[in-house]
Amino acid sequence: MSLRPELIELDTFGIPCFLVRMHGHEPLTAALVAQAEAERRADPRGRNYQGESTWHSQDELHRAPDYADLRSAFDLAIEALWARVGWRAQAHPWEHVGLWVNISGPGCATHTHEHWGHGGSTFSGTYYAQAPPGSGGFRVENPDAYLTRVERECVLDLEPFSVPRWFELQPAAGDLALFPSWVEHCVMPNRSGAERISWTGLFTTPALAAKPLGGAERGWSRPERGWLEHPNPDPLAAVD
Questions:
Q1: Among 55, 62, 60, CA closest to 40
Q2: pLDDT tens digit sequence for 161-186
Q3: Which CATH number fits domain 4-211: 3.30.365.10, 3.30.70.250, 2.60.120.620, 2.120.10.10?
Q4: CB contact at 8 A, 50 and 110
Q5: Does residue 62 have a pLDDT over 90?
Q6: CB within 8 A of 168, min separation 6: which ones?
Q7: Contact of 100 with 200, CB cutoff 8 Å
Q8: 52 pLDDT above the threshold of 90
Q9: Would you kindly state where each structural domain of the chain is located, as residue ranges?
Q10: How confident is the model at residue 235 (pLDDT cuts 50, 70, 90)?
């Protein structure tokens, strides 16, 4: 397998989300389509989330030796991202903590969710093995876009001052979306006549999971970032 990752930064409201275009992906993609279908045959019920109609496999496929090539593709994506910010794998190693396949037939979608609670993951990636035109965009939600009450009661009054709520990516086979695990995201309904097949991987790094560095250690010169060095106060600490 000879993959060549091309890292493209997405305009996602300042959130570090990326499209990794995998050149030379065709052999891997073909194998992953066949493997996805085999996983579904072995477990027709799969896992159901929030009443979705999308079929999901179990989420520990990263432990299976059959998916070494896919793990390597995710590794290439993380390496490209680390290189963008000047990190090296030796100083900031990562671990695979989750992997599953999603198969969405016509009309199927994925509700808004995040991956923060999956195995302590810090970054997530979704590799698209089959994504025909119209099979549903990948959406990232702007965390600053709206308040539920404002949207419900004042949407007409505030419409001239609204900010974008969603960024939508239209992926193709061989594309890999890479995003922080805390990001709220969803997948739009599949309006094509074929299935959309994607694989989601989760990653964590001991360096990111360890005690945060202080501002001076990070080299920050902006004093307003100093709040990061202090824990949030406990509102009940002074209550008898």
A1: 55
A2: 667 788 999 999 999 999 999 999 99
A3: 2.60.120.620
A4: no
A5: yes
A6: 137, 138, 139, 140, 188
A7: yes
A8: no
A9: 4-211
A10: very low
